Amino acid sequence: MSKSEDFNPVIIIGAARSGTNMLRDILTAVPDFGTWDCDEINPIWRHGNLSHPSDEFNADMATDSIKRFIRRKFSKIGKALGVSNVVEKSCANSLRVSFINEILPEAKYVFIYRDGRDTVASSAIRYNASFELGYTLKKLRYVPVMDIPYYGMRFGWNRVKQMMGSKQLSFWGVQLNDMQEKLQKYSLFEVCALQWKECVEKSLRDFKNVPDERVYRIAYEKFVLNPEEELKKILDFLNVDSSGLDVSALVGKVSAKSIGKYKTQLTDEEQQKINALLQDTLEELGYE
């Protein structure tokens, strides 16, 4: 398959609540960068593989028809916005870098990772979040027409359960293998920890097969503590001259206040359980 000449794909990879939204919003405020006007486009990525039970895809699942479909979506949004650089951030992509690399062999990746303990408490809140009609409708706009019945049933059943008294959504965020079993076996905080762990570990494995010059790695904590300097480095990686940009304004809303919040949001017992699950991965990323 020949490479498209009308868009440059920039894929942000990161587990949920790791700063991916923050980074997407900053990059798409830069001239000639744009993205879809919804939080994520997971239905586009899953088109053709709806029956697959998790969000973890391998390269073999990227058939020629799926490649053409997804590349057309990138080209279409780039033309509609009048931009050359199309940014995409779907947290589930953490589990399918090899799949994406097969579809977009020219893509550049920004891999942002965060202390998994901080992501856990934040993720748990999303499981219990109230239904947001506007948010859901925005995402539905980008569901392929033939896939609408599937998503209608899926989201509908999820909300019916909530209306019947279930305080917790049956699923939220990245869908792991054996997700329902995990939800029954582990506490909500432990499930969130496993989501972070598997997303990070799968990304790290897949990135070993992507040339280093196409991957930029940044710790969330490092970025929020020195956002201007770190953004300049990311823009340089993306071949953008930042000298004419108001970098200070671009990162004006960045805050470091969430670093280490797990220490007050989680009980000692919860911290112990989560540390037991995440210790090896945290150490691999340089967290103590």
Oligomer: single chain
Name the CATH class.
Alpha Beta
Q: Enumerate the strands of the largest sheet in spatial order, edge to edge or round the barrel.
A: 2-3-1-4-5
- What is the total domain count? 1
Q: Average the pLDDT over all residues and give the rounded result.
A: 90
Low-confidence sequence ranges:
none
Shape assignment: globular
The CATH topology name reads: Rossmann fold
Distance between the termini: 44 Å
CATH architecture tag: 3-Layer(aba) Sandwich
Order of helices and strands: EHEHHEHEHHHHHEHHHHH
Helical coverage, percent range: 40-55%
Count of helices? 14
- What kind of sheet is the major sheet? 5 strands, parallel
Radius of gyration: 19 Å
Q: Tell me the name of the CATH homologous superfamily.
A: P-loop containing nucleotide triphosphate hydrolases
